[in-house]
Amino acid sequence: xxxxxxxxxxxxxxxxxxxxxxxxxxxxxxxxxxxxxxxxxxxxxxxxxxxxxxxxxxxxxxxxxxxxxxxxxxxxxxxxxxxxxxxxxxxxxxxxxxxxxxxxxxxxxxxxxxxxxxxxxxxxxxxxx
Length: 129
What we know:
Blueprint: H1 4-23, H2 29-35, E1 36-43, E2 51-52, H3 56-63, E3 72-84, E4 87-98, E5 101-113, E6 119-128
Parallel strand pairs: 1-6
Antiparallel strand pairs: 1-2, 3-4, 4-5, 5-6
Helix pairs in contact: 1-2
Protein name: DUF4440 domain-containing protein
Pfam families: DUF4440 (PF14534)
Domain DUF4440: 15-120
């Protein structure tokens, strides 16, 4: 039977994959919003501002179609850091493609688990390599 820490690592890795599946979709807003905590923020290299769930209108505007960031992605060098039994961070390198263009970045996301057992995103950032 996997340890509690192994289950947390697996849960957080799956949540991060769900985030990137949403980000690579043609209409990421609804799925990313569902994954993100009401206090959550997202930082992307091409956006000069920090997207905050506290400003849902701006968040929805930034994520609106044709926001299709990538056609596919691959994680490398994934590390899950367990902060405590209800919080953790995922750091990794991402290689994503859009047509013939390649995107490489280092990423970090912090997740927290609510009393309902659901993991939500508190912070996500990407830094171009």
